[in-house]
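Hello Y.,

Per our agreement to keep a running log of every chain we model this quarter, I'm adding this entry. I've kept the format consistent with earlier entries: sequence first, then predicted structure.
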Amino acid sequence: AMTPHHRRVPLLLGALSLAVQPTAAFYLPGVAPKEFEDGDPVQVKVNKLTSTKTQLPYDYYSLPFCRPAEVMNVAENLGEVMHGSVIQNSPYDIRMGESKFKVLCRKMLSDSEAELFAKRITDEYRVHFIMDNLPAATKMYREMADGKVVTMYDRGYALGFVAPPAAAAGAGAGAKEAAKGVPYLHNHLRFVIKFHKDESFTGARIVGFEVEPLSVKHAYKGAAPEDASQLVLTTQPVGPDLPPQAVSQAGEVIFSYDTKWEHSEIRWASRWDLYLYMGD
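Predicted structure for the entry above:
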């Protein structure tokens, strides 16, 4: 019987032969520009969790994140297939040009699920997403020796952070917890999506995908409805001044997100440049 590997080779060769047509002479399959019209769905794919501390990658859904109705493998082009890791769909609903705040889901974490989040946060795991072939990046500002502040990017976003013992003690945590610091989960994500428009094509091309993570202990009015998207949150608009979401024990976590669109002069062909200068 033909193995999946053997079956895949002719498919890839066929895709490559298509790519060599004159119209797309310098594009690999799946890497031709894609134009989005206002309101078009923009898919967020989830990839993996990585840590430079442990060097052990995990699949995204190995953690109890919000899940779509059906989790599917969605590696759809040569670059993603050769990436080697599992690329799956997500429940994020993003539409070109729409900036709504949305609740993704409400989870009641068990002790073991909270412990798993806490362990991955303590091990400094980062979460990796893909949008329109671009890996998610986090913007950082670093002060150099000469006092100049430079903007740098890192792949993925930090799953969470551990509050230093003093801060944890100040937040009313018990002495035992405060001694080791408390893990907090980044349960709100702001997607900063950069797009480019030009007279040579209709619609918009995505040229940047940044994630700004935040930890927010969401609160809401009344009882929690069956449909989490109907929650009336009192913790909105979100900001760094709100209490963060600890994951040191079982309990409720509400995941949310919003989207910010930024026009950019970066052309599609140059959108990978910032990834060439970042740490892996």
